[in-house]
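INTERNAL AUDIT FORM
Audit reference: QA-55
Scope: verify that the stored structure record matches its stored sequence.
Auditor: D.O.
Record contents follow.
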Amino acid sequence: MKLYREDGSAPHEIQIGLLDFLRELKGGLEGIPATSSFMVVGIDEVLYMAGSDMRKEMAKAIHNALQSSASDLEKKKIEVQIICKGKLVKGDSLWIEYRGETLPIDYIFGTPTNREVRGYSVYATGFNLSS
């Protein structure tokens, strides 16, 4: 991202925390203009604070909230970047290394495609989150 590297990708126009974004989705997308673009931050913090015994359930709840709004997000051509502070690691599944913990984001995003953008791994998935 340009926030961290001069040659990085531009951040989307609206920065919002994950929980606030999920709250917006739950309330419906009527008040969100078409073609909006969101940079969602805090996914690693939310999963970390859930505690090791609740992380899997929290990840599944995030997945369900995003997936239930998928059709409306696609129709309105809303773009979403989800930014992680921790290190993304792809092995047999995808996870984040954050504050010495392993956070399971594969339950949210499945197995997204990996591509290199300016020397950094970027993972992309559709709103249906089934890839």
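Auditor finding: record pair retrieved intact. The mean pLDDT is 86.
Action required: none
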